[in-house]
Amino acid sequence: MTDKYHIAKRKYIYDVFKSLFFSIFLVFFISPHILETENEEIFSLSNIQAIIVLLIFFLSLITQFIIYWMIYKRHLFSNQDKSFLIEKGLFFKRKINLPYKNIHTISIKRNLFDMILGLSKLQIDTGTTASMMPEAHLTLDKTYAPVLKKHIEDRIKLKDVEIPSPVDFLANEEENNDYFYQLKWYNLIGMGIIKPGFLSALGVLTLILFGFIMTFLGLDSTINLTAAFLTILLSFGGLSILLVIGLSLYHLIRYWNFRITIEDKHIMYQYGLINRVEFKLATSKINAVHIKRSILYRLLNYYELNISVLGIGDQNQDNQIKIETKAILPLVKFDILSEFLNHIDYQTQEEKENIKPKTYSKLNFVILPTIILLIVAITPHLFGFFDYSKLISPMIVQFLSLILIIIALYLRLKNHHYTISNNQFIFQRQPFTIKKTIIKRHRIQSISYKQTPILLIEGIGNIGIKYKDLKGNITMRSYPKSDFDELKNKLLTKD
Amino acid sequence: MKKLAKNINLYHYVIRTLLSLIVYGVFILLLLLPVETFGESIIKTSVLIALSVIVFIVLVANFILPAFIYKCYGYSIKEDYVVFQKGVLFRRKDYIPIKRIQHIEKMHGPIQTLFNISSLIIYTAGSNDMLLGLPIDQADDIIHDIREQLQLYLDSDEVKEDDR
Questions:
Q1: Contact A446 B89 (CB under 8 A)
Q2: How is A216-278 classified by DSSP, letter by letter?
Q3: What is the ipTM of this complex?
Q4: Tens-digit pLDDT profile for residues A264-277
Q5: B30 and B76 inside one domain
Q6: Which sequence spans correspond to the domains of chain A?
């Protein structure tokens, strides 16, 4: 029996985007006309109408997801005795049988979307004038398309060869690659969601839609607040989906085909779809490494590694700052991170003794900022001209934001510590996305001890460390002079 | 900790007064201008209040803080690093490892020359730190001392070890 193969699975991503755009189009352009409201303003929808709009969106989305998946599963190609067979169609099933001897031309085409997703379209034309379009086209993996093309050409030449499997072919391809690390398209799409930007943007969106906009709507007594809330909820859903698509596309385009090769004392890396970047750098030029872990990175056990290197992030001859990523490993598991760090001569073992701010730490990190925050938040309410019955949503948002900020302040204190081990200075900071900077002792350019009037009264200060990088400085807050002196002796004096 | 030039406080009184003249001038001009110029009297009052706060801060920075500069500022050169101590209200101590120094710059403008003082700027690959108010001849001695210590490091095998 002849083996049948599916078209490239990632074509389904293309279908997912189509479904999303169609559903959004359906909701925003068609639904209001179907509902035939007296006043067609979007905030004038009744509760039932708003729910119907929501239902239309999700039903349309889910239906399309299922249909496109079924279409994908039924799109097959195979090698027959003397012909090439393509089977497709869900409701209107088609079998296109193309005798090898009649095949006129075979071409491979790629549009922008194909390039982003790593796809190619193989078009087969029999030279008939009945149709302007090619008789068949298959969406395939970009590396497999030329292989299948060659196979069909061989069959036309009456060679008795078997059709190569796209799965085996791709597996072999991967084995042949000698990259230390590379990112697949699905990693890049995932990065759009798990990097810190997504949750932050979602937070800002919540604040704007449910905080500010609902406040303005609450001040207008003619607006039906329940309907407005449902409409804003719908907008929130739509914008969140657009955010996911936008961020995923951004990472897909920016880090497209991200590959790293390690050669003795050099690292070569390349990435990018529109602006392809290729760099070769000496490991000895690395001045600091930064390990970043967002909340979702930690949940999924991933790490991001950035590096500070002379020449990258520096200014060029025209005095313009080069916009160049320093994310050398944007999404890795610990074993790869550890291997890479060992290669560039940085240690990854857990620090034994973390030095945290002790004196007045809770006061400076949590209590004082909270008091300032509460004064700012409560002052407008003291004037008492708000009608709170109409501002339930903004009040909830404000309360939740306050709680979130207080949690962030507490986590900022919890994650704030440094240590020195094996000639390395390691400093960890930030509340949600934890950033750990490792600097070799001899890469430190200067250190300082700074005291504001409040810190002078408390008898503590902030420690500043400068290292080779554009804006390469870090500040460690609320440490006593004794800690600074110990640090200074370890970093600046001879062993 | 070694001290700066003895006339450093006077230098700061002069230079800060010169720089603050524009703020005082604007404030006096505003006081003298008739209320009608502003349309409503509330605008003049608001602007005056805001500017008064600024003028108060400038007055403190101009006439009170310089009195403590000689006492609070200083420097020292150790075996491994140079220390700059700066700030009256906001204090800081900068420690610059001698091994990391790329170059040192001495500069003095016309007013500094009148007071026979100069500024010393120490550049490393990732920072630059300035100390203003050293007597001109003393600055040359400091540069000489730092250069000698730096040369010892540059001639040693430690350089190769650090560059590896």
A1: no
A2: HHHH-TTS-HHHHHHHHHHHHHHHHHHHHHHHHHHHHHHTTT-EEEEETTEEEEEE-SSS-EE
A3: 0.85
A4: 788 888 787 776 66
A5: no
A6: 1-176, 185-254, 259-349+421-492, 361-414
